[in-house]
Amino acid sequence: MRCEAADVMVVGVLAAAALAGWLYLAFAHGGFWRTGPGLPGAPEPDEWPEVAAVVPARDEAAVLPETLPTLLAQRYPGAFRVILVDDGSGDGTAETAAALGGGDPALTIVPGRERPEGWAGKVWAMAEGVRAAGEPDFLLFTDADIAYAPGTVEALVRAAVAGRRDLLSQMATLSTRTGWERVVVPAFVYFFAQLYPFRRVGRDGARTAAAAGGCMLVRRTVLAEAGGLARIRGALIDDVALGRLLKRAGGRCRLDLGRGVVSRRPYPRLADLWAMITRSAYHQLRYSPVLLAATVAGLLLLYAVPPAATIAGLIAGPAGEGGPALAAGALAWALMAATYVPMLRFYGLSPLRAPGLPLVALLYAAMTVDSARRHRAGRGGAWKGRTVSERTVPGRTLSGRHKSGAADASRTSLE
């Protein structure tokens, strides 16, 4: 009996710690759980700036028919062109893009040159696009799987000019057509926002900096003054690294969720989502076993302890020894679920899924551990035929200061 009472007491202490964490996250962490209104309305600028969209593309022939035409069809009032960088594709990406362009002078296809040592593949392709762009006022870095609703580029530029933003990024709406996508994707965005609260990203002077790689409108002169893409050449998580680079250089940033920017890349199987997350999760932890252990412990404390304490409290007796564990665990669980509901609604999913977030968090913990295992086995960072291991990532800490916390396990580039 004494042993059981001691066990319940330990669970109660852990539940109280979890509750303290959720009280902070819910009420003092930048309102990370609010999905927000998206881009603000803005007046027409006095003069429309020139914009060059840079699209790194490696083996994207299958998805380009759904995305590239949406960029070329933008009715932007100023000068606008699209530069697609064929990053060593073997599936006819360049030929597909040329056919889709149909001779449109707004489309330039650039064959990527050999990647220099020390550069991550995507960042080098982005740099090749910048080189070919000349001197536009803004660079729109976007991914080959991203589709744009009509008027989106104009709305981005209006907001950037009116708000004097040097980086304006929109997180693409990801696919939730399959069962596993509906389980994993909303949680991914939720965890991302928990790690990088959007309102803090947009606050001048705040240390939080991030971006979403699917759509990043960048003022070219500010990027050049910050040292250019060479400063983040080894970054596997290029979007967050770019956000940090610009904000540390004094750039004014904004990050939103938006429906005008949509990812067309499907993830029909759990294995597809698993591969996407494991390729960069351990990199985010700087290949540190200590940070890996801390992240897994944080996930267990914040997400597994509340439901476990709730159940343990019920079993031990709510009116007796189990009361404190039950109260703390249930309240922490309720706060967790409540903060998840807005993201579920954003993706058109039932709020009844919210109490199941602990199970999704455990899935992310398993993915993070597997990411470390893959890196140790020399198979880390595998993507588009390239494998990047811990030993070969040049400048692997260029993505900036690590922030520990439960959401670290989620950070990858699904967009």
UniProtKB/TrEMBL annotation:
The keyword Transcription regulation does not apply. One of its GO terms (molecular function) is transferase activity. Residues 378-415 are annotated as: Disordered. Pfam families: Glyco_tranf_2_3. Keywords: Membrane, Transferase, Transmembrane, Transmembrane helix. The chain crosses the membrane at residues 6-27, 285-305, 325-343. It comes from the Bacteria. Gene3D superfamilies: Spore Coat Polysaccharide Biosynthesis Protein SpsA, Chain A. PANTHER family: GLYCOSYLTRANSFERASE (PTHR43646), SLR1566 PROTEIN (PTHR43646:SF3). This is Hopene-associated glycosyltransferase HpnB. It comes from Actinomadura coerulea.
